[in-house]
């Protein structure tokens, strides 16, 4: 019985040690160019005012060119666990702003959660990194 307990404790210690040395999937900052979840627009997220903001810099449909330059994200601050929150995200289709939480998932994806007051009523979107040489629309 003692050998079984010892082996169990050793296995548990090894498991904890492997989690401690495994790199996290979240990056430190979600800055850069990102295709939104629809693939119809790209948002550039940059540092501004001690936090992050983002604006629409590419549109798949050039007929909507007047939306180019629209601020989509604002006042987002670093939070716990690699996430960024406390700011807002603008939905141009509904002409409404919502609370937002942004979490990098590796270096190529962002988990973007928009919610109205409580996360029980939220929408989770996955944005994908856009190429740095993406041809931008003109604001």
Characterise the protein shown here.
The structure is a single chain. This protein is mainly β and about 140 residues long. Mean pLDDT is about 85; it is low at about 1-25. The protein is built from one helix and eight strands. About 15% of the residues lie in helices and about 50% in strands. A hairpin with a 2-residue loop joins strand 2 and strand 3. It has one helix at about 1-20, and strands at about 30-35, 40-50, 50-60, 70-80, 85-90, 95-105, 110-115, 120-130. The chain has a single domain, classed as Lipocalin (Beta Barrel), CATH 2.40.128.
Measured by DSSP, the beta-strand proportion falls in over 45%
CATH topology (level 3) name: Lipocalin
Number of helices: 1
Strand segment count: 8
CATH class bucket? Mainly Beta
Report the principal-axis shape: globular
Q: How would you name the oligomeric state of the polypeptide chains in this document?
A: single chain
**Estimated structural class:** mainly beta
Number of domains: 1
């Amino acid at each position: 019985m003692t050998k079984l307990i010892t082996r169990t404790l050793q296995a548990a210690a090894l498991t904890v040690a492997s989690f401690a040395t495994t790199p996290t999937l979240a990056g430190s900052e979600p800055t850069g160019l990102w295709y939104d979840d629809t693939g119809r627009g790209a948002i550039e997220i940059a540092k501004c005012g001690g936090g992050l903001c983002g604006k629409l810099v590419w549109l798949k449909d050039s007929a909507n060119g007047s939306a180019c330059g629209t601020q989509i994200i604002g006042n987002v601050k670093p939070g716990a666990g690699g996430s960024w929150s406390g700011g807002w995200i603008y939905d141009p289709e509904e002409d409404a702003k919502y609370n937002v939480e942004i979490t990098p998932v590796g270096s190529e994806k962002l988990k973007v959660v928009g919610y109205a007051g409580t996360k029980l009523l939220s929408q989770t979107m996955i944005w994908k990194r856009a190429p740095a040489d993406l041809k931008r629309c003109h604001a």
